[in-house]
Amino acid sequence: MAAIPPPVLIVTGASTGIGAAIARLAGERGYAVCVNYRRSTQAAQGVAADIESAGGQALAVQADISREEEIMRLFATVDKALGPVTALVNNAGMVPQRRLVDELPASEVEITIATKVLGAILCSREALRRMLPRHGGSGGAIVNISSSSAVHGAGGFWVHYGAANGAIDTYTIGLSKEVAVDGVRVNGIRPGFIDTAFHDSAQWSGRLTDMGPRQPLGRAGRPEEIAAVALWLLSDQASYVSGAIIDAHAGR
After folding, report:
1. 88, β-bridge pairs
2. What domains can be seen in the chain, in order of their start residue?
3. How far is CA 180 from the centre of its chain?
4. Active-site residue, from 37, 161, 171, 240
5. Exposed/middle/buried for 100, CB within 10 Å: 0-12, 13-18, 19+?
6. 3-state helix/strand/coil string of 59-95
7. How far apart are CA 116 and CA 93, in angstroms?
8. Is residue 240 annotated as a catalytic residue, yes or no?
9. What does pTM read for this prediction?
């Protein structure tokens, strides 16, 4: 009897932080994992190596998901190396630095929205071209990582990032209704203050130290805590959950 191939998962922005934690846990749970990254080659290859050293299957693939042609290359690479994707986590996101709205250059708005919104929509499109029965697929699951900024608006530091994540929440709900009949579940997670390098890359290195203790649970979250939620949403244990957005923000 031929061996059943493992489910194939792409995690965007998976070289560090939440994405890396999701990729590692997915490897433990039996997924063949594509660790997507934009620039951090060494870190992404390290995540893939961790998965493989634990007995899993992984591949690090560089692609800037703000660019359609690179998304197309990402999925084509995964098709050849691992097989058609059956699960997708749209995690990648960025905000260049803290900005008040009247200070914002268009370039920073464009890269923030292109990475978070355009990237998620086009990655979902390519995943659905492999998951939907009319394209020869047999269903699948998509998890979109947004942010609690989608709810509180991020006024005073990065409203454009909050707006991008609000768009992702709306997209999650709409897409879930569109593809549920085809056996594809779509859900989201809104993390709060999570201990990752995201804050440093956004030129706000003291944010976690300052804000973490102010959360109702008294601390920042860990990437592994978000990964556990994501893997549950991808799993058959969440087979009747679609269109949900789970707040993981310490009760904030």
Report:
1. 10, 142
2. 8-248 (3.40.50.720)
3. 20
4. 161
5. exposed
6. EEEECCCCCHHHHHHHHHHHHHHCCCCCEEEECCCCC
7. 5
8. no
9. 0.92
